Amino acid sequence: MLSARSQSSALVLLGLFSPLLQASKLTIYTEEYPPYNMMEPTTETVTGVSTDIVRELMHRARQDHDILLVPWQRAVSLAQAQPDSCVYSMSRTEPREPLYKWIGPLVQNEWVLFGRVEDDLKLKKLEDAARYRIGSYQGDAIVQYLQERGFLVDVAINDRLNPAKLAARRIDLWGTGRLIGQYILRQEKMIGIQPVLTFNRTEMYLACNKAMQEKRVEQFNTLLHAMEKDGTINQIYSQYGYQR
Predict the structure, then answer these.
(1) Residue 168: phi, psi to the nearest 5?
(2) How much is the pTM?
(3) What is residue 165's predicted lDDT score, i.e. its pLDDT?
């Protein structure tokens, strides 16, 4: 485990944790969204950059929890319906703001349009893509973001379908996070697809049910800030071969 965990002991001695340590068990939902959250096939455990941050946060809070990987729409619905539940990695958008208690940010996420290398598209701003069909996937915040701005969005069941759709010219562009796009392309061994425009930057959070006590939310956020300050989050990124 990370050496920075020793700091949690000091925080306990300072009295930061009290009755919250006995808080009920959390069920934390996530989706397959590598490299932030994903299933490790050999061990059948949930891993990834965001997952490791959440696990370390729960360890420092001495919070009993389970992390379950389910389809995104189900993860969102369960976190809204069940009092002792959360979901990650969730972009904090205006429509979502009143639906959860927010812990984070865990990670940052660049939204990118990928295109075919052979098309050699020169996009300087998002509006330059207005005449193109853009692929995304069901439940992703990018869908709503683009649709609200009048873009034609082709919504797939999951993001892994989009590179093949792009290569087959069923879509003109693929809108996704930079790291997940690069990850999927490596996994699928696909070439000839490249980023053509970064059109937004968001922060992704652990979003918890509205019934969570504010004091508990403050505790988690305080611990997460300490993880940022002591270098733990940078260390987790580097373990996956990424730099912030």
Answers:
(1) -85, 5
(2) 0.74
(3) 98
